[in-house]
Amino acid sequence: MKKINLLIIKKRFFLFILLIFSAFFMNLFLWNETSQLIRQLPIILQLKKLSSQNIYEVNYLPEVDSQGRIKEHSEEERNNLAFFLASFQTDLYSNKRAYLDAGDNDATNLTLVTKKVIDEYVVAREIDIAFLNDLIFLNPDNKQVNEFKTQSENNAIKVSLLSMKERYKVEYDYYVNNFLFGLTVSLLLLTFSIFLIYIIISASLKISEEEIKLLRVIGLSKNKIKRNFESLLITPVVFTAAVFIIFIHSINIPVIVEDYAYLLILNTFLCLVSKLIIDLKIKKGEIYA
Hints:
Layout: H1 2-11, H2 13-50, E1 55-59, H3 75-86, E2 92-94, H4 96-102, E3 111-112, H5 115-123, H6 129-132, E4 136-138, H7 142-154, E5 160-163, H8 164-207, H9 209-217, H10 222-250, H11 257-283
Helix pairs in contact: 2-8, 2-10, 2-11, 3-5, 8-11, 10-11
């Protein structure tokens, strides 16, 4: 049977390579988008809870020059921004990420921003982008929100407000749409992999027709022949899955338990389909009596 396998691989080598690439990218597209969604899901659910509340987040997108470098701001511009933020200081809080990660709507995770802190991160040095984007405007009335937006437009340094409802929609649309895209591409590649497996097993039976007849004459059972073809078709799938796991570990991206679970389900399904195709071929009498 080893000689038969080598003959099949030699004559249909390109199909095996194509199957390996198809299975690899099938895993890649599903993992890349699904893992991101799973990791972000607690925050998305927290944002959904907060979407009905009167909470806004501060957004600052720095300007860049023609070479993509962040533009530096004059001391006067930084002072104006600090004065602007200080005028809303009583409702501005930091530690937004910790607040969202906690998932319990506990405002004790937030820290009230003082003028000293604003001066430290805005005036004393070039503007700290992370500081501005970590701010939350907690329970402002409509007048304050309108004033914030109006005054911000008059500053050289623009900051904006985004309600939790708007932020939830942005996060949901981004991660869910990406997941659906990844899932769709992965399923298309899964279908293509199944098609390749069907082509390979059909070609394999034709290529090895005479050898199989001889093996049947000398007493080799159909089950052994079937198991050989199962091994021949399933090995590339298992090999590719193993290589893919090594790949994602090599790029220093932490792998979560859920990643192993859905990748295992996907690749197990592909292996089971391979086995089913071989069984159907046998039932049709294509492994010779």
